[in-house]
Write a structure and sequence with these properties.
single chain; 218 residues; Arc Repressor Mutant, subunit A; Tetracycline Repressor, domain 2
Length: 218
């Protein structure tokens, strides 16, 4: 009787809908450890515990896997930025504060920041990946910030500046901070406190370096 039960009882199987994420997780592990170019699809399959053919059921190429990683972890940040920027009665400064904290918090995760690092490293070899990242992440995120700065100027909250140029002052320090920390290992212990950096960045962004009691020589 026990043998009959064991034969008729269905074996445990991984849910099919979970496998794409398993492939993506395995791929990201290998991209971080070995680099995108050096990683083969069969390596990803082995790490994910499936056949190479099974990988191709979900992704038709290694580039498609990296695209999916971008869309899973980074594009939602741009989506949030766009959603916040289209709220007409929002407080531009408050919304920018929220966006900076959100983006910095996400990028402080080493596995999330690894994705744009991989795109940068492979930019010369895979221009289509660069264009995808520019279109789905950079242009949408910068556009949302530009909208907020323009609205702040219209409302008199910000002084007249060039919105497109000013956007670089919002995102530039965060990029520099993450590169110095994650890539060059500069002041790792101090820089690991992303919240402290963000507060400092926002203070300088909105108030500048000038002491209002002191005249700055021209």
């Amino acid at each position: 009787m026990a043998d009959q039960i064991s034969k008729t009882k269905p074996k445990w199987r991984r849910r099919a809908d979970a496998r794409p994420d398993e492939v993506l997780d395995a791929a990201l592990d290998l991209f971080i450890a070995s680099g995108f170019s050096a990683t083969r699809v069969e390596d990803i399959a082995r790490r994910a515990g499936i056949s190479k053919g099974a990988v191709y059921l979900y992704f038709n190429s290694k580039e498609a896997i990296l695209t999916a990683l971008v869309r899973r972890s980074v594009v939602p940040v741009a989506d949030d930025a766009v959603s916040l920027s289209i709220i007409e009665n929002s407080d531009p400064a408050g919304t920018i504060r929220l966006l900076v904290k959100t983006v910095a918090g996400r990028m402080a995760d080493g596995r999330v920041f690894a994705i744009p690092r991989i795109i940068l490293a492979e930019a010369g070899n895979f221009p289509d990946l660069v264009q995808m990242y520019r279109r789905e992440v950079i242009e949408r995120g910068l556009g949302a910030l530009e909208t907020l700065i323009h609205r702040g100027i219209e409302q008199g909250q910000f002084r007249p500046v060039h919105p497109r140029h000013a956007v670089r002052s919002v995102v530039g320090p965060m990029i520099a901070h993450l590169l110095l920390w994650r890539v060059f290992g500069l002041d790792e212990e101090a820089d690991a406190d992303m919240e402290t950096f963000v507060e400092s960045h926002l203070d300088v962004l909105f108030h500048g370096l000038s002491n209002p009691d002191k005249e700055i020589p021209s």
